[in-house]
Structure formats: structure tokens, C-alpha cells
Amino acid sequence: MAVFALVDCNNFYASCEKLFNPRLKDTPVVVLSNNDGCVVARSAEVKALGIPMGVPWFKIQQEAKRHGIVAFSSNYALYADMSNRVVEILSSFSPNIEVYSIDESFLDLSGFERIGYHAYGVDIRQRIADWLGLAVCVGIGPTKTLAKLANHCAKKKLAGEAGVCDFTSISPSERLALFERIDVGEVWGVGRKIAARLESMGIITVRQLHDADAETLRSRFSVVLERTVRELRGISCLDLEEVVPDKQQIMSSRSFGTLIYERAELAEAVASYIARAAEKLRAQDALAGALQVYIRTNIFKPEVPQYQRAMTIPLPEASADTRVLTQWGLRLLRRIYRPGYGYHKAGITLMEIVPRTNQQFSLFVPSSQASGRNDKLMATLDSINGKYGRGALRLAAEGVTKPWQMRRGNLSPRYTTDWESVARVWAR
Predict the structure, then answer these.
(1) What is the pLDDT at residue 67?
(2) pLDDT per position as a tens digit, 199-243
(3) pTM for this model (two decimals)
(4) Going by DSSP bridges, is the β-strand pair 4-9/39-42 parallel, antiparallel, or unpaired?
(5) Are 40 and 75 in contact (CB under 8 A)?
(6) Are both 236 and 123 inside the same structural domain?
(7) Does one domain contain both 260 and 222?
């Protein structure tokens, strides 16, 4: 019998911020989105205050001051590194693992029944707490959907103890009784819109969804919801995705920290976004056959002049060379740029991505005889940036001072990925 575990880090972003600053142990902490705009992560203390997810930071600053809430800018380098460390630990508990998101992973626990699934979940939780100082909850079930729901029960303390909920140790009647207390919107894959439609049909709880006719739901919704119902009944329909599929498109975009009026500064931003996307493209050993560039003003300020434009161009030959992609990206920017506007955001998308082994050369443009040398140059670029940090070596087109970068006024140090930011302990 298949058995899955979902391991989810509690309040992950906020917990990472607290981890390297013990003085914040019991302090309410929020993490803000790009340009310090909205609340995207909350510590348990902030949740207890009733502050919702996604609220604009400027709207709650007075309340935050009253409650002593500490706000941090998003420190993606720190969060990604801590996530990788969690996954490394989880890999020692099961050879089969699916990294579902930055703070969630599915494990295949088939064959570990002799140890006891609940005890194994407790061991996982304790190992991560001891080695990394992070708290996680573990949900265990015979399907991925039930494991996800068991994790919700562990977080809300609806069943189980010590942050672990094991549905395999609960009788079917006990499980159904528990389902009667959980809103249908808590089921994995049932979003807000689907939940509203289900509620209009009288399906309000997980128990009611469990008992619903799967064929009827398939005809009214989709095969996805039918699978969800079957998974709630213990029939495994979703396999573990151990290999992350290659991306069919790679996007890179940011809102600027301040409005940009000059094309030169827009060009720096576009070149920087292309460099990041090209790095990801080479990491999956692929090439892009088309490129899109877009720019726009601030749509949230309708009182100022508005302009937005996007343009896509097929490349003569698919490429992963940052220099080639930047050259074409800046050509597109020259075509779509209009002076006199204050630009708030720009972005690029690499499209028509194919594996490098499937490269098709152009009949009309002679292929570069130095392509092998160019590949080595890009490999050297990635190697240096991987060792010394992203941007250590870059194209001059990306700029130096970058005044357009997003605001990150409350950014914490990159404690685990930068030698200059390593936490210091002073002896008295």
C-alpha cells in the first residue's frame, strides 16, 4: 500500500528570519513582498493578531507599531538555501521525494511500516528542529491529498500530537468524523472559486465532498476534482513527481523601486532580467527560440499617463547565450519604448524552449563556428557566479549602480550564502 508524507515548514519565511536573531523569538514578524509592498508571510504571533495575508504594509504600519511587529524585506537567497537544507535532511528519510514548493515536500514512506509511520514522522520533525532550528508539521496518508489534509490537521491540532497527524492509524469512521469538522476549501486543489461552487451545491465540508458522486463532479467541474474525491477515499491517483519537468517558458520581471523615465535605465533592467533567465535556461540544458520584452507604467495610479507594450521576436537560431539574448532584448526595447512616461515594471519571457540536443540550425543564418567556445564562456560565467555570488561577473549592459532595483529597506543578511553576512558571536 502506498503511503505518503507531506512535510511543511511552519511560517517558513518568518521562521528563517527569527532563526538567526534569537531576540525575535517571541516577537511578531512579517515578511514583505517585492518593493516592501504587501505582507506575504506571518509569524504565529502576527496571525494571532488577526492581520491578514496580502495586506499592504503601509495600511497597517500604525497597528504594527502598536503591537511591536518587525517587518523584513524578502530575503530569497536565505529562504532558498534553508529550503535546500531541509530537503537534504528529508532525503535521508526516504529515497523518493517530491519538492512541491519552497517549504513543502512529499515523501514516499512505502515500506517503512515496521518503524511506525507516526514515530517516523516525529523523527523527521525532531531531526529538522535539531539540525536546522526550524519547526515542521508532518501529515501522513495513503494518498497525496490525504497527506496534505493530514498536515492541515497537524497544524491546527485537529488530530495527532507533536505536530504529526497519521491518517493510516485512524479508523475510517474516525477519519470521516474529522472530515465533518473541516471546510471543503481546505482540500488540496479546491480553490476559492471551486469551493464557492461546491457550497452552492450543498457541499460545505470535506465529508460531504468525500461522499459526493465522483462522476457528477467530473461532469460539472473536471477530471481533477474527480481524482480529488477518489484520493479522499484512499484511492491513490497522483504519483510522486520526483523529477521536476523542464520549464516551457522562463519569465523574469520586477517592479522598480522608483519610476524610470530613461531608456538607458530600462535597458539595464531588461539586460539583468535576461541574464537571470538565461542562467535558468542553461541550468536545464535548453535553448530559447523566441524572446518577449514588455514594459508598463503603474496601473495602480490611473491619474498618471498610462502606457504598456509587449513585443515578441523569434530568434534566427535558438540560443542560451546571455549576450545573444541581451542583444535581441535591447532591440525589442528600442522598438517599444516611448519617452515621457514613468515606467513602473519591465519583464522578459524566454519562449519556445527546446532541449539543447534538439537544436535546429537556421538555413539562412550561418551557425557560429565558435559556438563551442561560446558555450564554454557561458559555463565559465555560471561557474564564477555560482562560486562568488550572482552578479559577480556580468555584462556591462546590466549596469553598476542600478538605481531602478526594487526597494528592500528591511533586508536581513544572507547568513548562509555570503561570507560577509555570516552571523558573528562576540565574547565578553
Answers:
(1) 93
(2) 988 989 999 999 988 888 888 888 888 999 999 999 998 888 755
(3) 0.78
(4) unpaired
(5) no
(6) no
(7) no
Domain count, the chain: 3
Whether the Cβ atoms of residue 344 and residue 297 lie closer than 8 Å to each other:
yes
C-alpha cell at 315: 530568434
Chain centroid, CA 212 distance in Å: 33
Grouping H, G, I as helix, E, B as strand and the rest as coil, residue 112 is: coil
Largest Cα–Cα separation, the chain: 72
Which tens digit of pLDDT belongs to each residue from 11-56?
999 999 999 888 998 999 999 988 888 999 999 999 999 999 989 9
Contact call for residues 297 and 427 (beta carbons, < 8 A): no
DSSP state of 161: B
Gap between the Cα atoms of 326 and 291, Å rounded: 10
> What does the pLDDT look like over 47-66, one tens digit per residue?
999 999 989 998 998 999 99
Kindly list the distances between the CA atom of residue 192 and the CA atoms of 66, 187, 198, 228, in Å, as whole numbers in the listed order. Answer: 32, 11, 10, 15
Rounded CA separation 18/72 (Å): 10
The count of other CB atoms within 10 Å of the CB of residue 51 is 18
**380 and 274 in a common domain:** yes
- Interatomic CA distance for residues 195 and 219, integer angstroms: 16
